[in-house]
Amino acid sequence: MIGLSTAAEVRAAEDVLLAAGREGALMQRAATGLAVVCLRLLGRAHGARVTLLVGAGNNGGDALFAGAQLAARGARVTAVLFDADRAHPAGLAALRRAGGRVTGPEGPDGLDRADLVLDGIVGIGGRGGLRTEAARLAERAATGPGLTVAVDVPSGVDADTGAVEGAAFAAVHTVTFGAVKPGLVVGEGRGYAGTVHLVDIGLAPHLAPARAHQLTDADVAAHLEPPGPTDDKYSRGVVGVVAGSAVYPGAAVLCTGAALRTRPGLVRYAGTAADGVRAAWPEAIVTDGRPGDAGRVQAWVAGPGMGTDDDARSVLAEVLATDLPVVVDADALTMAAREPDLVRGRTAPTVLTPHDREFERFGVPVGGDRISSARRLAADLGAVVLLKGDATVVAAPDGTAFVNATGTSDLATAGSGDVLSGVLGSLLAAGTPAAETAAAAAHLHGRAGQIAAARGPILASDLVRVLPDTVGRVRGGGDALLGHSGA
Ligand SMILES: NC(=O)C1=CN([C@@H]2O[C@H](COP(=O)(O)OP(=O)(O)OC[C@H]3O[C@@H](n4cnc5c(N)ncnc54)[C@H](OP(=O)(O)O)[C@@H]3O)[C@@H](O)[C@H]2O)[C@@H](O)CC1
Ligand SMILES: Nc1ncnc2c1ncn2[C@@H]1O[C@H](COP(=O)(O)OP(=O)(O)O)[C@@H](O)[C@H]1O
Ligand SMILES: [K+]
What we know:
Blueprint: E1 2-4, H1 7-19, H2 23-42, E2 49-54, H3 58-72, E3 76-81, H4 89-97, E4 101-103, E5 116-120, H5 132-143, E6 147-151, E7 173-177, H6 187-193, E8 195-199, E9 212-214, H7 217-221, E10 238-242, H8 250-262, E11 266-270, H9 274-280, E12 285-287, E13 299-302, H10 310-320, E14 326-328, H11 331-338, E15 350-352, H12 356-360, H13 370-381, E16 384-387, E17 393-395, E18 401-403, H14 416-428, H15 434-452, H16 460-475
Parallel strand pairs: 2-3, 2-5, 3-4, 5-6, 6-7, 7-8, 9-18, 10-11, 10-13, 11-12, 13-14, 14-15, 15-16
Antiparallel strand pairs: 1-9, 16-17, 17-18
Helix pairs in contact: 2-3, 3-4, 8-14, 8-16, 14-15, 14-16, 15-16
The structure holds ligand NPW, adenosine-5'-diphosphate and potassium ion (K).
C-alpha cells in the first residue's frame, strides 16, 4: 500500500529532522534524487539544455541545487528567478559555482530550446493558482520543446486535494519528496503531475500513519485468492444481483457476468431481466421473482438498470433490510438520494458507487476536493462511498480513503460502471472490509480496462471478457508487467 501524506503531515515529519539540525541534509537528498531522475530522463547531461523556474522558497532551492548538479556534469543550465532577492542563497551560489546562468522572468530563459524544464516555482508552500509571471512561463514551458518536470508538486496544484484554481504547471513527470501527496494522484492535479517519482529523504519513520492510500497489485492479489482444496461453490462467497429490466437486460447481463468472471463461485440473479441473464450466463442461478426468492447470498449488488419506480424501490428496500453487504449503484443511488434513511443506520456495510452527477443528488456537488467530499458523504450516511472518476476515490465513514491508481479513460464507455458493480459485489461476498474491498474492485476494473484497451477501443463486455486474465495477472504481481508507475 502506498501512503498518501498531506503537506501538513510532511511538514510535521520534516520538523523532527529540522529540529535535529538536518535541514541541509534534507534538501541535499531531495536535490540529488531530483537530479538523478532528470539525468535518467535526459539520457545524458553533457550539452543538455535545462531551464529552471525558481520561486522564492525551498522548492526553488531544490531546483537550484539539482540544476547545479546537472551543470557540474556539463548541462547548460539557465535559472529564471522570479524574485532575485529571495532566491535560495546557498542553492543560487551552488548553481553559479557550477557554471549555471541566471536571469529574470523577462530575460533569455532558454525555454524555446530547452531539453528539460524544472518547475521549482512553488511546492507544498503554494497557495492558489500561479501568479501572472509564473503562469506565463509555465504556459511557455507547456508549449515548448522541453520535457516538463515538477519539483515536489506541479506549481499551482493544491498538494492535498489536487484542486487547480487558475494556472498551473503541466508536468510530464513529478519528482516528489518524502511521501506521495494526494494532490498528485487525484482530481485535476493527477493530470498536471504526470508520472510520479518518489524520492526517499528519510521522512518515513517520522510520518504520521497515512489516512489515504493507493493499492498496488500485491494488495489487490490478497482479495483474489484462488480456491483451496476444501472450497466449494458456496464457500467462496455467493453474490446476488438485482439489476436490469425486461426491456433493458444489458446492465443485468454485464453486472452478473462481471461477478461470475471475477470469482466464479456462484452468482444469483433476481429480477425482470431473468431471460436475458439466463441466455447470456447459463452458470448463474436465475429467478424472475423477488430478492428473497433467489436463495442465500453473502452480498448484494443493487441498481444498474433496475429503474426507480415503486417496484424497484421495494426491491431495493428489501435488499437494504438484510444484514448483508450491499452495493448501491446507478438507479439504486437515485432512490437512496431521495431516501437516505434507506442506507443510514444499516449495520452491515453499504457501498455507494456514484459518479459526479449521482453524487450531487445527495445534496452537494463534488467540487475540487474529491477526497474530502467522499469522506463527508461517507460519514453522513455511515456508508463506504466509491466516487468514480479518472482516479476513483473510496472513503469509509471513519475517514480512511483510497485513490485508485489504475484508471484509464478507455473505461469511459456505456456499461463500464455495471461491470464495476459486479466486480465489487463479487469481492464483497468474501466478507473482507468494505472500503479496501471497494478500492480493490476499482483497481481490478482499471487493470481490466488497461488490458482490454491494449488492442484498441473497448466495450464494457470486453472488460468482462478480460477479467479472468486480469485476475491472473494481478495475482502474478503484474505491476511491472502492466507498466504500473505507482510512485
Ligand atoms: N522543509 C525542508 O527542509 C525541505 C523542503 N523541501 C522543499 O521545500 C518545499 C517547501 O518550501 P517552502 O515551505 O519554502 O515553500 P514553497 O513551496 O517553496 O513555496 C513558497 C514560495 O512560493 C511562493 N508562492 C506561494 N503561492 C504562490 C503562487 N500561487 N504563485 C507563485 N508563487 C507562490 C511564495 O511567495 P510569497 O507568498 O512568499 O511571495 C514563496 O516564495 C517543498 O515543496 C520541497 O520542494 C525539500 O527540499 C525537502 C526539505
Ligand atoms: N476518463 C476516465 N478515466 C478513467 N476512468 C473513467 C473515466 N471515465 C469513466 N471512467 C470509469 O468508468 C466507469 C463508468 O461508470 P458509470 O459512469 O457508472 O458508467 P455506466 O453507467 O455507463 O455503466 C467508472 O468506473 C469510472 O471511474
Ligand atoms: K513545483
